[in-house]
Structure formats: C-alpha cells, structure tokens
Amino acid sequence: MIWIKRDRGDFRMTAALLVAMASVNLPLASNAANIPRQNLERMFDQMQRQSHWDISKPLLWGYFFVNPTREPLDRAAPLLSAMGYQVVKIYLADKKSASAPDQWWLHIERVEVHTVDSLDARNHEFNDFAASHGIAVYDGMDVGPASGTP
C-alpha cells in the first residue's frame, strides 16, 4: 500500500504493507511484512511523479518494527543505533478497543539514498533482523525530504 501522509510538517510518502494488526492477535509471524518488489517499484515511480524530491539524492528514510511487548524493541534499539540508525522512539500504539492486544512500535530513521534494489535488500535485512531478535514484524518504511532539503 502506498500513500502520502502528513508528518512533522512535511509530506512523507509511506510504503508499508500494513499487516492487518487490528484484526490479528500478536504475536505475528516473523517476516509478516515482506514487501513485494513491485510495491517498491510503484513507490519509486510515485515519488518520481508526485514529489519534488530528487530521489537520487539522500532522503530521510524511516523504518518500523512492531511487537506485542516492549522488551525486544528496547534490546534492538541500541543494536540498530550502532548500525547507524537514529532511534526516533519506542511507543505503545493507541488501541481501537480495550480488549485489543498491545502493539509496541520502534521507529528508526537514517538519511540515505535508495534504489528499488537497495530498498528491497534493506527490507529483507530488516525482516531477518526482526526474526533473529524476537521482534514480531518489520512493518515497513516511510520517506521524506532530509532536513534542509525541499
């Protein structure tokens, strides 16, 4: 699924296969958000046509992990930080109902250049990272202009 959302005062494009978490009880199977390459191709095509960003230049890429408990995300955050990612936050998502399961999110980001191939490789890397660190799912990414760029 590809859409543009408003975040931090700028437009950011998001490409995340949203695992139907509202209707699925966590824990989710690892690698539940394998994002098909064709979705990435559509995302890059949309970015080229609908944004004013030069996608050959560094952009701010955000990545998201989801788990029913906070602890695996707390353990993963310093590892991802050591890999050069900025930890934005770990937070408990709002529930649609009191009986809904908890959904903890880890949001990281880094300014970098991606192509369809490199982003596809990154998604596979993060799927493997989630599986090997006891995180229910790598949920996907979003992208926006890097600080100081239009």
Walk me through what this model shows.
The structure is a single chain. 29% of the residues lie in helices and 31% in strands. It has three helices and six strands, in the order ββαβαββαβ. It has helices at 37-50, 71-82, 116-132; strands at 2-7, 10-15, 59-67, 86-92, 104-112, 137-145. Strands 1-2-6-3-5-4 form a six-stranded antiparallel sheet. Residues 1-12 and 14-32 have low confidence and may be disordered.
Summarize this, please?
The protein has 150 residues and is of the alpha+beta class.
SSE order and pairing:
Elements (H helix, E strand, L loop, with lengths): L1 E6 L2 E6 L21 H14 L8 E9 L3 H12 L3 E7 L11 E9 L3 H17 L4 E9 L5
Antiparallel strand pairs: 1-2, 2-6, 3-5, 3-6, 4-5
Helix pairs in contact: 1-3
Q: What amount of the residues lies in strands?
A: 25-35%
User: Which class of secondary structure composition applies to the elements?
Assistant: alpha+beta
How many individual helices?
3
Please identify which CATH superfamily we are dealing with.
Answer: RraB-like
What best-fitting shape do the alpha-carbon axes yield? Answer: globular
What profile does the largest beta sheet have? 6 strands, antiparallel
Unreliable spans: 1-12, 14-32
Rg, Cα atoms, Å:
15 Å
- Helices and strands, in order, run as EEHEHEEHE
Give the number of domains.
1
Number of strands: 6
Report, as a whole number of angstroms, the end-to-end distance. Answer: 25 Å
CATH topology description? Alpha-Beta Plaits
Q: Average the pLDDT over all residues and give the rounded result.
A: 81
